[in-house]
Amino acid sequence: MNDPAVTINNDEKLVESHTTSNADELVPKAYLIPFILITLCFPLWGFANDITNPLVNAFSKVLQMSVAEGTWVQVAFYGGYGAMAIPAALFIKKFSYKAGLIVGLGFYALGAFLFIPAAGAQAFAPFLFAFFVMTCGLSFLETSANPYILSMGPASTATQRLNLAQAFNPVGSLLGMFVATQFIIQKLNPTTDAERRALVADGSDGALEQLSAITANDLEVIRNPYLAIGIVVFIMLLVIAFKKMPRTEEKSESLDIRGTFKRLLANQNYREGVIAQVFYVGAQIMCWTFIIHYGTEVFVKMGMAEQAAEAKSQMLNIYAMIIFCLSRFVCTALLKFINPGKLLMVLAAGGIFFSAGTIFLEGVIGVYSLVGISACMSLMFPTIYGIALTGTGEDAKLGAAGLIMAIVGGTFLPMAQASIIDMKVVFDGFSATKASFILPLICFVVIAIYGKRSQRHIPK
Q1: What is the C-alpha separation between 421 and 437, in angstroms, rounded?
Q2: Domain for residue 439, yes or no?
């Protein structure tokens, strides 16, 4: 990856000249303002990801579904990444990173605004469609922003630069989780699952009208934060659309798709990185989605009322995100001194340790082990991303699509875990919820292996 000095003119072309900047400079001055603007996009998809995770439990309650049925939220949400990643990469390769950002922000805002008719319909399917449209936009956004950040400076600092930008992603995640807890979960009608089922069983016009009113109110509560973020995203779209941005790549008139995919598939480091990313995203979504189920189960066994246990578990979810956010900044600093692959391996080993604690330790210690996993996950996504794209050159545009498609790990793995939890049986002394965390443990084993094997591919 070249390290050109950049001049931005009115038609967004890149003018390259020799530079005297330090070869290890993190963000060259010519890229600083564009870097800041693109970095501001990272909290936007962090918000979308983590306001959504608690909604599995919310939709299950509001629409009286099983845990597995509620997990269709994750299938629709993360399925959009898989469906749109390659089209997004082809679009970016044909046009530019900036064009990809604008399209991504547009779909994001549209999906958020689709929550208005979805709430009015009082049905699950329109919400799933809104989630899908929104994440088609997120797929464009991430496929554009991540490699764009990597290209804004020398290759020697690319992974560290991406980690710096990604460090602001959990800020949005934390805000999303806080909004989900305080402005959605806490504002849902306090009618319990049993009371809602009783209204359905009653079947009288009065009972069904009462249930319909409760459901309509709850769905409006879910809708409102998405309207707010839709407005914010649309404003960000306008800012980027009117701001002159550097072109760090040449416009491609011809797309050598077959050749690009052939080279990527032959690249062992990239191929294994995509696999590792599938398992990482699956582990992240499982640990953050089902911490509420795990904590509620533990605290109820300790004698706490169910509603209080659920509220406490929600707060622990926020604490996990705070730990994740702080760990991201700490680990980004450590990358100055430690090989990214080695640090990835160490963090994955920590994930294995805490996952084992989640399964085998009883009471509040098991809950704390689950919270502790977040410290280990903090650096994984951008580090795997940066390592996997090392040395791919112009193929990074389509290579980025494969790594974004890997986010589909957030669909089938949480669904598999939800299916285990729904069994509500005891596995050799372990509850179904505890036993289900064997899946994140396996994910961290895969990531640790990739961290070990990838170390030889990273520039010194």
Answers
A1: 10
A2: yes
Q: Is a pLDDT exceeding 70 seen at residue 97?
A: yes
* pLDDT surpasses 60 at 20: no
* Region class of 161: left (phi > 0), else alpha (psi between -120 and 50), else beta: alpha
The first and second tokens of residue 156, run together, are: 């020697």
The secondary element (H helix, E strand) that includes residue 425 is: none
How many angstroms separate the CA atoms of 106 and 380, rounded? Answer: 28
18 C-beta neighbours (distance < 10 Å), count: 7
| Residue 2 domain flag | no
Question: C-alpha distances in angstroms, 254 versus 92, 305, 408?
Answer: 13, 63, 29
Angle (CA) 227 230 232, round 5°:
115
Q: How far apart are CA 31 and CA 289, in angstroms?
A: 37
108: left (phi over 0), alpha (psi -120 to 50) or beta: alpha
User: What pLDDT digit, counting tens, does each position of 67-79 carry?
Assistant: 778 778 888 888 8
Task: Answer whether residue 5 shows pLDDT above 60.
Answer: no
Assigned token pair, 142? 């991430």
pTM (two decimals): 0.75
Residue 449 placed within a domain: yes
| Residue 1 in domain | no
DSSP 303: T
Q: Structural domain of residue 332, as residue ranges?
A: 7-15+22-248+256-457
Q: Render pLDDT for 30-51 as a digit per residue (tens, 0 to 9).
A: 788 888 899 999 999 889 988 8
Average pLDDT, the chain: 83
As for how many domains the chain has, the answer is 1
Q: Are 150 and 391 in contact (CB under 8 A)?
A: no
Where is 7: in which H helix or E strand?
Answer: strand 7-8
Residue 424's Cβ-count burial label (10 Å; 0-12, 13-18, 19+) is exposed
* CATH label of the domain that carries residue 101: 1.20.1250.20
pLDDT confidence band for 250 (50 / 70 / 90): low
Closest CA to 323 of 370, 374, 362, 283: 374
